[in-house]
C-alpha cells in the first residue's frame, strides 16, 4: 500500500489499515468511482468494467491516494439494492484493481456481506455512510479484518434524509453522534486508530447546515480522529448559484480550500487532478507568506 507517509515521525493522528500505520504529512485525495446507474453526478458512466477500470487508473495518474468505489447510489431519494447486485457491480473492478495497483481501495457500503467480500479480495477501507447503524455485524467485521473505517454522520436514510432535516445545534449534534458511535465501535473491537470521521455534507442537512459544518470543521478535531470532507459537486453548491452537478467545480474547490484551512486530512472528490493542483498551488503560496 502506498500513497501515505508511514514514518513514525509525522505529527497528528494516524490511520491504521490492515496492520499498517499511516500518517498524514499532507492532505490526501480520495477519488470517487460510482459503479451505479443512478448516482447524482456520474451515474451510468462507469458501469462497464473497462470504463470503470480506465477511470480508476486515470484518477490514480491524476494524483488520487485512495479510490472509493460504490455500487449503491446514496443520493437523496435513492432506494437500496441487494448485496448480490452491489457485489456484481463492484467485485470484478476491485479484483482487477488490487492486481494492477497498490493504491488504497475504499468501498462505499453499509452492508457487512459486501464489506466481507471486498475485504477478502484485497480492499483496504470500508466507507460506511450509516456509521454501523444499518448492519449490526459491520463493526465486528471491520475489527476482525483490521480495515480502515470511515464513519459518516447521516440524519435519516438516503430515501428520506432531505425531506425535513432538523437539528438543535448541528455541530454539537454531530459531535455527540460521533462520540456515541466511536464508543460503540470500540466496544465491538475496532481500534480508535482505524476510524476516520466524515460529517456527511448533504446527508440529512439543509443548505445552512452544510455551510455551518464547513465553517466549523475544526470543532471535530477535538475527537482526535482524522477528518474526511465529501462536498464534491453536491447540491448545496447549486442552491447558491443554481448550477448543475457538472458545473460545480469551482464550488467544490472552494469547499476543499475551506476544509484545508481547518486541517481536514482527506478530500473525497470527483475532480482529482483539479483538486490536487489547487492544494499544491495553495500550499506553495502559503510557504512564501510572512
Report on this model:
By secondary structure, the protein is an alpha/beta fold. The chain contains 9 helices and 10 strands. The chain has one domain: Alpha-Beta Barrel (TIM Barrel), CATH 3.20.20.20. The strands form 2 sheets. The protein has an 8-stranded parallel beta sheet with strand order 8-7-6-5-4-3-10-9. A two-stranded antiparallel sheet has the order 1-2. Helix 2 packs parallel to helix 3 and helix 8 crosses helix 9. It is globular. About 2% of the residues have low confidence.
Q: Describe the global form.
A: globular
Q: What structural category arises from helix and sheet content?
A: alpha/beta
Strand coverage percent: 15-25%
Report the total helices: 9
Give the count of structural domains. Answer: 1
What string, H for helix and E for strand, traces the elements in order? Answer: EEEHEHEHEHEHEHEHHEH
For the biggest sheet, the summary is: 8 strands, parallel
Q: Average pLDDT across residues? A: 92
Radius of gyration of CA atoms, rounded to a whole number: 18 Å
Q: Which strand order does the major sheet show? A: 8-7-6-5-4-3-10-9
- Give the second-level CATH assignment, the architecture: Alpha-Beta Barrel
Helix content: 25-40%
Text of the CATH class: Alpha Beta
- Cα distance spanning the termini: 37 Å
The CATH topology annotation reads as TIM Barrel
Low-confidence stretches: 6-10
The oligomeric state of the chains shown is single chain
Per CATH, the superfamily is: Dihydropteroate synthase-like
Amino acid at each position: 500500500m502506498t500513497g501515505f507517509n508511514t514514518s513514525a515521525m509525522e505529527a497528528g493522528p494516524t490511520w491504521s489499515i490492515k496492520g499498517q500505520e499511516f500518517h498524514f504529512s499532507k492532505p490526501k485525495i480520495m477519488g470517487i468511482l460510482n459503479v451505479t446507474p443512478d448516482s447524482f453526478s456520474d451515474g451510468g458512466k462507469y458501469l462497464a468494467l473497462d470504463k470503470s477500470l480506465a477511470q480508476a487508473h486515470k484518477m490514480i495518474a491524476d494524483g488520487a491516494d485512495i479510490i472509493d468505489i460504490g455500487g449503491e447510489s446514496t443520493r437523496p431519494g435513492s432506494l437500496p439494492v441487494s448485496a448480490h447486485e452491489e457485489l456484481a457491480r463492484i467485485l470484478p473492478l476491485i479484483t482487477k484493481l488490487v492486481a494492477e495497483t497498490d493504491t488504497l481501495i475504499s468501498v462505499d457500503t453499509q452492508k457487512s456481506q459486501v464489506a466481507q467480500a471486498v475485504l477478502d479480495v484485497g480492499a483496504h477501507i470500508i466507507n460506511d455512510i450509516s456509521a454501523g447503524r444499518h448492519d449490526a455485524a459491520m463493526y465486528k467485521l471491520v475489527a476482525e479484518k483490521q480495515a480502515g473505517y470511515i464513519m459518516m454522520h447521516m440524519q435519516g436514510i438516503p430515501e428520506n434524509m432531505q425531506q425535513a432535516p432538523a437539528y438543535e445545534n448541528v455541530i454539537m449534534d454531530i459531535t455527540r453522534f460521533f462520540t456515541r458511535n466511536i464508543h460503540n465501535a470500540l466496544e465491538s473491537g475496532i481500534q480508535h486508530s482505524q476510524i476516520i470521521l466524515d460529517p456527511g455534507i448533504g446527508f440529512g442537512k439543509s443548505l445552512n447546515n452544510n455551510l455551518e459544518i464547513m465553517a466549523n470543521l475544526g470543532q471535530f478535531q477535538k475527537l482526535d480522529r482524522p477528518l474526511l470532507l465529501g462536498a464534491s459537486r453536491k447540491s448545496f453548491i447549486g442552491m447558491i448559484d443554481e448550477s448543475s452537478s457538472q458545473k460545480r467545480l469551482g464550488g467544490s474547490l472552494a469547499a476543499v480550500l475551506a476544509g484545508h484551512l481547518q486541517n481536514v486530512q482527506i478530500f473525497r472528490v470527483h475532480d482529482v487532478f483539479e483538486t490536487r493542483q489547487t492544494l499544491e498551488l495553495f500550499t506553495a503560496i502559503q510557504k512564501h507568506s510572512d
